[in-house]
Amino acid sequence: MAEQKQKYEESKVPMSIKQSELNIGTLGHIDHGKTSLTRAITGVWTDKHSESLKRNMTIKLGYADAVIRKCEHCEGASAFTTTNKCIGCEGEAKPVMRISILDAPGHETLMATAIAGSSVIDAILFVIAANEPCPMQQTREHLMIINILGIKNIIVVQTKVDIVGRDKAVQHYNQIREFLKGSAIENAPIVPVMSNLGVNIDVLLEMITKMEKPKRDTEADPIMYVVRSFDVNKPGADVTKMNGGVIGGAIVSGKFRLGEEIEIRPGMKSSNAKGNTYKPILTKILSISTDSTNLDEAVPGGLIAFGTALDPSITKADSLVGSLVGRKGKLPESKNEITLKYTDLKRTDMPKRAFSLGEPLILGIGTATRIGHIKKVRKNDIDVELNHPVCATAETKVAVMRNDTKRWRLTGYGFIE
Ligand code: ZN
Predict the structure, then answer these.
(1) What is the predicted pLDDT for the residue at 10?
(2) Which domain range does residue 137 map to?
(3) What's the number of domains the chain is made of?
(4) Which of 34, 70, 97, 313 is the most buried (most CB within 10 A)?
(5) CA 193 to ligand 1 center in whole angstroms
(6) What residues does the ion ligand 1 have nearby, CB within 5 Å?
(7) Integer Cα distance of 390 and 308 in angstroms
């Protein structure tokens, strides 16, 4: 997270908006301009997935933060920017709110991440490019996912309008309206933008500031999904000066405080002749930080990093991704087998077939990805034995992928019973 360069000066951002107020996911057909849009808003590429692409189905969120600012001298949408100075009058722009934009690589993983990470995502930018007819197949599938997730906090962003010109853009805009009819987001605003030229990004920013803020339950037991974990020490660093392991993730409920004792489940893997076992990890929060600043406590919003007292070899190379962090003794037991209440997506691009015993599945459970095998099928309930244990609360939404002609495809979703 540290490598991200911000366009604004952090020192001028007041304490009240140190943490992101809105986690915004992006959806949209491939090449429709999600990454360019993210860059236009935040100044940061989220396209940092090369490693996770190699590992195929690993759920890994691309991530960028921005502080939306407003010029005090200008009126209307043109007062909104994510830079220090007003684009119009070059006067000082004052911070209004911080947002985080989350992105996932690839079409199937994007959909799986949207489902499995839905407790982390508060709002969606639904990107539809004007230079192709609407809807394209993936656009249609993403609308289906939006309907399933029931996220109403959505702005449709019509990208690439500079490529097609005004008349075509208006026609395409009407196509989008038609396409959204009867869906959960029938009346969502549609904002035409030119990401590369920065045109209308101010309008989009103003709309984002008016989106409904999620209600954060900060009194509940705190839970964080681990999205990253790493060793921040340089190779060969002096052992006496080493930093403890770092865990990065998204808090979904409650409040974590500096100095607090935490537990991580399923935790640390150890392999022996009998297979893999996992041991819960206990440690202490030694530091709390966002991309850019240190905090004394953290609530849901954006990605948060905890510095811990752990041996960094425990956290290195994303080894704890998919675990949950909670207060000591407050997390559910890890499970090797789960029962899912399954709903099929009825995809038109795949043949319909029943589940078979022993069939392999890939499951997205929060930020954990697990391979499982079907043990039992009863109507819509399936029992799945997992290759590695998972720690998840009841009612967690799970993305289910099946193997279709040697490719893993998202076929449905379920809830853990
Ligand atoms: Zn101004």
Answers:
(1) 54
(2) 2-209
(3) 3
(4) 34
(5) 20
(6) 71, 73-74, 86, 88-89, 91
(7) 22
